[in-house]
Structures are given as C-alpha cells and as structure tokens.
Amino acid sequence: MATAILTFLKNSGVRQTCPQGPDGRQSSAPSGWATLAIMMLFLPTSALAQDPIALEGREIFTSSDLEINNPSLSPNGRWIAFAGQSSPDRSSLYLIPADGGNETDLVQLTHGAFTDQRPAWSPDSRFLFFFSDRVDGPESGAVHLMRIPVDPEAGQGEGVPRPVFMESVQVTYRGGPVVSPDGKWVAFAVEETGARPNTAIRVAPTRGGFAKELGRIRSVSVADLGWSADSRYVLWDDWRARADSPGGLHGLPLEGGDAVQFLTYEQMRTAIGFTGDGHP
Questions:
Q1: Cis before residue 88, ω within 30 degrees of 0?
Q2: Distance between CA 13 and CA 277 in Å, rounded?
Q3: Whole-number Å distance between alpha carbons of 82 and 95
Q4: Which has the closest alpha carbon to 186: 136, 139, 142, 144?
C-alpha cells in the first residue's frame, strides 16, 4: 500500500519564483517562464518509519506557458486543480486528469483578467473554493471567497464563479480556504493589521451565507489551516513560539469557545494526524 503525495517541480535553471505577499500575489514581476511539472509521488506505507525515505515520482503534467501554483488533488482522485499564472497579474483555475495529460487535456475553469488562486475541493469533488479579485476588479485590491461547480466525472465546470459571501477579505499566506470533512463549512484566515497584528479565523457555510469569526490569534504566522476529522475544530499550526503566542498545533471549536492546544511546538517535530473520531 502506498500514500500519494502531490507536489510540483520547477526548472530552477530557468526561473526563480518571486515570493508571495499576504494576498498571494507575486511581489515582483517574473523574469521569465520555465517549464513546470506537477508530479505525483508515491510513498510506500512501510517506509513511513524509515529515514531516509525513497520516493517514486511520476510526471502528471508540464507547461511552458503557465506558472503552476497551489495544485490540489480532488477527493475522488480523478482530477488535479491548480492556479495557472499566465502573467504577473493574471491567474486562472485549471483542471488536468490525475493520471496524466498534456495541453489538449487541460481544462480552463475560470477566465478573464483576474487573479484566481488557492483552489480547494469540497469532499464530494463537486465544488472548488478559491480566492479571487474578480468581484470588485484587480484595481480594488479586494479579495473574495468564491466557488465554482465542477462535474466530478467529466472534469468540466458547470457554472460561473460566485461569491460565497460578499465581504472582501485580506487573506494570509497559506490561510485557506479549506473545506470541512462534512462539506458544510469553509475556513480561512484573515489578517488584521494594527499596532498588534493578529489573525482572525473565520468560517462560512459552503452553500453561501454570512461568515462568522471563531477567534483571533496574536500572530500573523498562521500556516496550514485545516480541520479535525469530525469537523468540530478548525486547526492551524504556528511555528513561531513567543511569550504572548506559543507555537504548536491549535484548534478553535466550530461551536465557539477558547482555542485548544493539541500539540506543543516541540511535539510538532513528529508526525501529526487525527483519528476518525476527530481526536489527535
């Protein structure tokens, strides 16, 4: 038995990717395009406890026209969604078959001179959630949480992108979106600026409606936003331990309440996982 790991590679001899700002945009203009490849790496289960680990890679897709960002494997295992950047200020969502394909197999889901980024699948593979500046336009600087329906069998879009809710947000890097395992909620992190910058963790119904804030964190180093397996907690890890904001793996309960620390900063050096009942 093997565990599949989705990754993507860049021809480092041709291009260096510019760092991303808090809104996910490139901080400076690219100096040139490279051929990028989405790879599927297969990790034998027996190798999980071994060090070093030998990985077997298989090329899924390459492109010399698009910079590939945020690849995401559909829960049904059939499709890979990614944000394809064709210019410094333009990025659209694409699908490619997970078992491999070429340019003719590429399906463009979103269009227009906008920045669509960070696609996240619903558990039934029928929707993609993503951040976009298409509601108010690129010049506004506003980013909205959007969704677009997808045919999980044909790998085609089944409608136009629509906002999950109308409020614009300033999203933190790697701050979602991420859909709960029960498919009812989508979580994301919002950067709050000021004398003491912090991050607000919010959730919104996947069917649309008002977003609610679960809590605020005295940190802007939130990374790897996720959910517990029972959809009861929104999780995040903080790798910057400080006196006023201890690092570690934390969770905020969906029904409200104080944050819970599941793992300390030191314990995060080991593997992280949740059981079927949602407990670490």
A1: no
A2: 46
A3: 7
A4: 144
What HEC string does the chain produce?
CEEEEEEEEECCCCCCCCCECCCCCECCCCCCCCCEEEEEEEEEHHHCCCCCCCCEEEEEEEECCCEEEEEEECCCCCEEEEEEEEECCEEEEEEEECCCCCHHHCEECCCCCCEEEEEEECCCCCEEEEEECCCCCHHHCCEEEEEEEEECCCCEECCCCEECCCCCECECCCCCCEECCCCCEEEEEEEECCCCCEEEEEEEECCCCCCEEEEEECCCCEEEEEECCCCCEEEEEECCCCCCCCCEEEEEECCCCCCEEEEECCHHHCCCCCCCCCCC
CB atoms within 10 A of CB 18: 15
pLDDT tens-digit series, residues 210-250:
999 999 877 656 667 899 999 999 998 876 655 555 678 88
CA–CA separation, 80 and 126 (whole Å): 13
Q: What tokens were used for 228?
A: 């517990």
> Whole-model pTM?
0.77
Residues, the chain: 280
The 10s digit of each residue's pLDDT in 142-189 is: 789 999 999 999 999 999 999 998 787 777 655 789 999 999 999 998
∠ CA(87), CA(91), CA(92), 5° rounding? 135
